[in-house]
TrEMBL record:
PROSITE patterns: THF_DHG_CYH_1 (PS00766), THF_DHG_CYH_2 (PS00767). Residues 4-119 form the Tetrahydrofolate dehydrogenase/cyclohydrolase catalytic domain. Pathway: One-carbon metabolism; tetrahydrofolate interconversion. This is Bifunctional protein FolD. The gene is folD. Homodimer. Pfam families: THF_DHG_CYH, THF_DHG_CYH_C. One of its GO terms (cellular component) is cytosol. It catalyses: (6R)-5,10-methylene-5,6,7,8-tetrahydrofolate + NADP(+) = (6R)-5,10-methenyltetrahydrofolate + NADPH; (6R)-5,10-methenyltetrahydrofolate + H2O = (6R)-10-formyltetrahydrofolate + H(+). NADP(+) binds at G164, R165, S166, T233. One of its GO terms (molecular function) is methylenetetrahydrofolate dehydrogenase (NADP+) activity. The lineage of its organism: Bacteria, Pseudomonadati, Bacteroidota, Bacteroidia, Bacteroidales. InterPro entries: Aminoacid_DH-like_N_sf, NAD(P)-bd_dom_sf, THF_DH/CycHdrlase, THF_DH/CycHdrlase_cat_dom, THF_DH/CycHdrlase_CS, THF_DH/CycHdrlase_NAD-bd_dom. Catalyzes the oxidation of 5,10-methylenetetrahydrofolate to 5,10-methenyltetrahydrofolate and then the hydrolysis of 5,10-methenyltetrahydrofolate to 10-formyltetrahydrofolate.
Amino acid sequence: MQLIDGKATAAAIKAEIAEEVKTIVAQGGKQPHLAAVLVGHDGGSETYVKNKVKACEQCGFKSTLIRFEDDVTEEELLQCVDRLNKDEDVDGFIVQLPLPEHIDEQKIIMAVDYKKDVDGFHPINVGRMSIGLPCFISATPLGILTLLQYYNIEMSGKKCVVLGRSNIVGKPMAQLMMQKQYGDATVTICHSSSKGLKDECRQADIIIAAVGKPDFVRADMVKEGAVVIDVGTTRVPDASRKSGFRLNGDVKFDEVSPKCSYITPVPGGVGPMTICSLMKNTLAAAKKEYYK
Ligand code: GUN
């Protein structure tokens, strides 16, 4: 069994990005600039955004954090998106999800200029991705694909099961794994209503677990020699930690890992790659790689 080290891979890619930024700036170009909008004080979102800001520093990007309280109105948030769309110094920006119940998430996503949509959530980017056109690709699926490529893991013609059908991970992941230019695999998506989910998993060469249920994938669901990618990051109480919690993946690691050819740990697997992909997308936005 080989552990897939997302932390080290992300660090190597961020170092490459930092080198490129140095060259751009040395040649008189503009420093890439990512803005992040954070609403409320959800612990998970606070951590993700803090890590995104830190990654910007590591890559030599400028970053701006815009905070709102939980009671922000949809109108105020839309005005903020509009300002960022028009701000010529901002190359790309994200609105951290989830948003409070009284705000229509889809309305906010649709308001973002797709040319600055480094999350890849706007329907134009989602649609372009699904027909194989250049675009911003959702950071978690892109990070997973990058990891699989980095470790030279064979995907073409393999049977891949994606567990979960979210807009952020499951759906774009299945799309990427299926397309000839990316995974070129045979893909099955399983979700909470799927019958025979265990049997589907048992036949899979690659399992990508993104259901948000701690320890959902057990040893009896995994074929000998399978590649297992764990996207789960549920906070579970842990009195032995200073924070009072630990991050738990969707895969019961101790049980599953002996059967795998490759497996990602939690933390240190997919998480750092997600942030690294956001940095890649921001650099692409600054270079106007996909859109003029
Ligand atoms: N919430 C969970 N994942 C993400 C992400 O990739 N981007 C944003 N904006 N919010 C998230």
